[in-house]
Amino acid sequence: MKKTASTAILAVILAALLGYAYFCERGPVRKKTNVRHIPILKIKTGDIRSFEVSGAAFGYTLEKNGGVWLLDSSSNRRASKFSVSGLLSNIAGLEAERKIEGAVDAKEYGLDAPDYIFRIGMKNGATETILIGDKSDLGDVRYVERGGAGPIYVVPEASITPLLVPPGELADKSLADSFLREKVEAVSLSYKGAADVVCERTKPGWSVRGRPKSDCTEAADTLLSSLEFEEALRVLSATGDEAAKLGLYEPEYSVNIQVKGRPVLKMDVVSAGQGHCYVRNRARNEIYETAADFKDKMDLFRKAAAKI
């Protein structure tokens, strides 16, 4: 009798263990489970030329044009090279903690209608496809398939989250291309069409052109720092007569930055009210809305140069 009771208890325990395995893996025990960290893609970040995301929440396409990444190239929106670099590094380095092989049903893992599809265009013309399926019942892993044909990879959710970046977070919000501060030779500023105030590099600092004993180092550094580190609150369309509507053809300020070995960086600035201003980068043909303190830096530059 005792032996029968013990056997029944063992049967219940075994059934519980099998049930746990089923719900954690979202299906019956498979033929083979690999517990090593497994690379899903064997690609190099530098070989990626495009990245397309299709999903219920958002979708976009990144395309490399020369040294610039464009976000939805038809709109010619620039993407942040730092954000894109991080995203593509995460894609190229994506690893699974295990994989499920053998006879599998894609529907069971949400891969028949995936939450997201990634298409990665390579410089050799090949395209890699990654399907992102359901989360596990515990929510700590996702089911991923490469190319729409098994095996199914079990990937930590913490590795998937950095790949699901909305397009707005990838947009380049810098006001100008990066430049080396020591390569800047001169900064000129005109206010409402008046004669330019030019601050040019001398040794050891900066001086107002025509007044070699003056010192405009602080004013120049402050303005250059704004150009380097200020980010747009939003990027406006530069199509049609947008610049004219915003008053950027008759700006309050026009700024020219002369960087050695590069074309002159030309920017126009007008007040937008409510603590904002509009900035046009002529080379990029882009218009930005920024905080008004960007224009305030120009006010300080002009007034400081006038006092020197």
Write the layout of secondary structure elements.
Elements: H1 2-25, E1 38-39, E2 48-55, E3 60-65, E4 68-71, E5 77-78, H2 81-92, E6 95-96, E7 98-100, E8 116-122, E9 127-135, E10 141-146, E11 152-156, H3 157-160, E12 184-191, E13 197-201, E14 206-208, H4 217-229, E15 234-236, H5 242-245, E16 253-259, E17 265-273, E18 276-281, E19 286-291, H6 293-307
Antiparallel strand pairs: 1-6, 2-3, 2-8, 3-4, 4-5, 7-11, 8-9, 9-10, 10-11, 12-13, 12-16, 13-14, 15-19, 16-17, 17-18, 18-19
Characterize the structure shown.
By secondary structure, the chain is an alpha+beta fold. It has 2 domains: 30-169, no CATH class; 181-307, Immunoglobulin-like. It is built from 6 helices and 19 strands. Helix 4 (217-229) runs antiparallel to helix 6 (293-307).
Structure, briefly:
By secondary structure, the chain is an alpha+beta fold.
- Give start-end ranges of low-pLDDT stretches: 22-35
How is the main sheet built? 9 strands, antiparallel
The global form is elongated
Figure out the total of helices.
6
Q: What average pLDDT do the residues reach?
A: 85
Number of domains: 2
What amount of the residues lies in strands?
25-35%
C-alpha-based Rg, rounded: 29 Å
Order of helix and strand elements from N to C terminus: HEEEEEHEEEEEEHEEEHEHEEEEH
Distance between the termini: 105 Å
User: What's the β-strand tally?
Assistant: 19
* Class from helix and strand fractions: alpha+beta
Query: Which sequence of strands runs across the widest sheet?
Result: 5-4-3-2-8-9-10-11-7
Helix content: 10-25%
